[in-house]
Amino acid sequence: MPETRQPSTLHALTPQGSAWLPDGYHLETHRHAHGQLVYAAAGVVATTTERGTWIAPANRMTWTPPGFDHSHRFYGRADARLVAVPAHRCDELAARPAVYAVSPLLREAVLALTGRPETRPGAHERLHAVIVDELTEAPEQALHLPEPRDDRLRAVTGLLHADPGRAATLAELGRAAGASERTLSRLFRSELGMSFHRWRTILRIHYAVHHLTDGVSVTATAAACGWSNPSSFIEAFTEVVGQSPGRYQADLRGR
User: Fold this and answer.
1) What gap in Å lies between CA 218 and CA 185, rounded to an integer?
2) How far apart are the C-alpha atoms of 233 and 226, rounded to whole Å?
3) What is the DSSP letter of 139?
4) Tell me, what CATH number does 241's domain have?
5) Domain residues for 207?
6) What's the N-to-C CA distance of the chain in angstroms?
7) CB–CB of 173/156 below 8 Å?
8) Rounded distance, CA 89 to CA 85, Å?
9) What pLDDT was estimated at residue 7?
10) pLDDT exceeds cutoff 80 at 252
11) Is the distance from CB of 170 to CB of 89 less than 8 angstroms?
12) Most buried residue, 55, 142, 144, 215, by CB count within 10 Å?
């Protein structure tokens, strides 16, 4: 892919397109009447709505249905691809924001749709149909980090966002936030739909993806993100992302 695309070619009003974007590039909060898929063929994209953040390395893409306020941030030098899904096709996909696995066919269809002008009538419409067909078969992925509304939970999650590697127990965090361990444990399950341990694991995976994308070693990433040893990090990363951190970095180099 020629690297002549400029960051200025993407902004919040861009329904569909592509650009090479620098690390940390941010598309501000906006919404669309159509659905939108965002794929980083290189790098990582994080899509944020009021329901939380969805992170997608190069084997995933984020999906935002019509009408959701959302923003995007890119990590690493990102080959960003935006695909607008017409409203009449959106009912075939999830009714909420999601992350989907990217099959080889889905990847090539997205690259073709966003990487070259339409040279034959109807070519883009046919590519859209292929993309939606592939997504209806693709599994949703567990790379969603929900964010709380309860002030006590927000205090706890804020401490962990500030230091993902922090080894504090929920009881210790609760003392800092002014809430009991039992109350916080209940709130994690009732408001966020997961245990405190699971939420913190996914948070750490989010930050680990950023480190790995920047070329940080697996061992250093494990230590920075709070794992006591690389093997436990590799196990957690593989379970959530679907591939080992070493394989993830090898794929990045391949791309």
Assistant:
1) 30
2) 9
3) P
4) 1.10.10.60
5) 147-254
6) 11
7) yes
8) 7
9) 44
10) no
11) no
12) 55
| Residue that is written with structure tokens 């409203």 in the block | 87
CATH number at residue 73: 2.60.120.810
**Across all residues in the chain, what is the average pLDDT?**
87
Query: Using CA atoms, how far apart are residues 6 and 106, in angstroms rounded to an integer?
Result: 24
**How many CB atoms within 10 Å of residue 215?**
10
Token duo for residue 186: 């209940």
Structure tokens at 234: 């590799």
- Give yes or no: residues 151 and 124 share one domain: no
Asked if residue 2 belongs to a domain, the reply is no
Specify the pLDDT at position 10.
65
Higher-confidence position of 118 and 18: 18
Give the E-state strand segments of 34-86 in sequence order. 35-40, 44-49, 52-56, 60-64, 70-75, 78-85
The pTM for the full model equals 0.78
Hey, what are 232's tokens? 């436990």
Report the DSSP pairing between strands 70-75 and 35-40.
unpaired
**Residue at token pair 């209940």:** 186
Average pLDDT, stretch 12-34? 84
Structure tokens at 59: 């084997």
Q: pLDDT for 159-215, tens place per residue?
A: 999 999 998 999 999 998 889 999 999 999 999 999 999 999 999 998 998 888 888
Sheet strand arrangement including 17-21: 17-21, 78-85, 35-40, 60-64, 98-101
Residue at a domain's end among 125, 144, 163: 144
> Domain check: are 23 and 115 in the same one?
yes
100 forms beta bridges with: 61, 140
